[in-house]
Amino acid sequence: MPTPRHRIFRVAWWSSNLLLVVSLFSLTYSFVREYSVRRYLDGFSDAIVPNILPAEQKVDAILSWMRAEPSRAIAATPDSLARRDPETTLNYQQLLNVCGTATNAFLNLARSSDLRVRRLLLLSPDRNTKHVVAEVLIDERWIIVDPTYRVIMKDAQGRLLTRGDLQDPAVFAEAISAIPNYRREYSFDHFAHVRLARLPLDGLHLRPLLDRIYPGWDEVVDWSLLLERESFFYLVASVAAFLFFLLMRTLLGWYADRRLRIPRFHLREHAVRAGAAFVSAPEIKE
Question: Which residue has the higher pLDDT, 76 or 239?
């Protein structure tokens, strides 16, 4: 842009271009990272879960691996571990014994075994998380799995139980009676898939608003994948940032062409022109 006028516009234009390039690099890096994580998880799950098994037996295979207490690394400072990194949660013994990270490890292996799963937070009456379990879709029912105790929740007849079943105190008491040392306070009276209270200002009071606008919004999307797998979160954030800055650049370009009448370098037009010149036959003048 050769003209010295419109300094504010020029700053906005070059800033949007710079941010677009940065977001593109971020998108590329996060895509490669997420791809490598998925490859790692595919290989890990293939080693312990045969793909030909039905869904319930796949769940049993993952829980059996966790129940066998596989030899894992022990961190001197567990609090410093990246708890949202699937490779970390699967390779440190301390994380496989904590409800949140044990559930994350189960969810990542289950997804790589082609199971539909999601995280379920069990809440106290004051909406604090007291335990974390998983839900697995088996025969069109969301069955409760507790990776911390390495069990599928069942009644005395062996019927697989959903969270709706476990809200019945009698069914809940029957199910946990077969699980040693299971804590009775891990009831299903209050639950959530997403804890908006972790956001500032008590979650910005978004939950009542979202519940009114779109009941069941927290079950439509697999929020656990977005919130608990760091590489996938960065990939989604990078895609959103790239699209935002691309839109901003497009709008600024339209404003420069239609409103300010500023001459600028049109990369797409020059690229098309150069491509046409490269593939077209040369003119022969007599």
Answer: 239
* Count of helices and strands (H, E) across the chain: 12, 5
DSSP state of 192: E
> Which pTM value belongs to this model?
0.80
The sign of the dihedral angle between the CA atoms of 134, 135, 137, 141 is positive
Q: In what order do the strands lie in the sheet with 129-138?
A: 151-152, 141-146, 129-138, 117-123, 191-192
Give 173's pLDDT tier (boundaries 50, 70, 90). Answer: very high
Two tokens, residue 135? 């839900």
What does the alpha-carbon distance between residue 250 and residue 252 come to, in Å, rounded to a whole number?
Answer: 5
The tokens describing 76, both together, are 């001197």
Which residues, 6+ apart, have CB-to-CB distance to 219 below 8 Å?
A: 118, 193
Among 76, 26, 38, smallest CA distance to 225 is for: 38
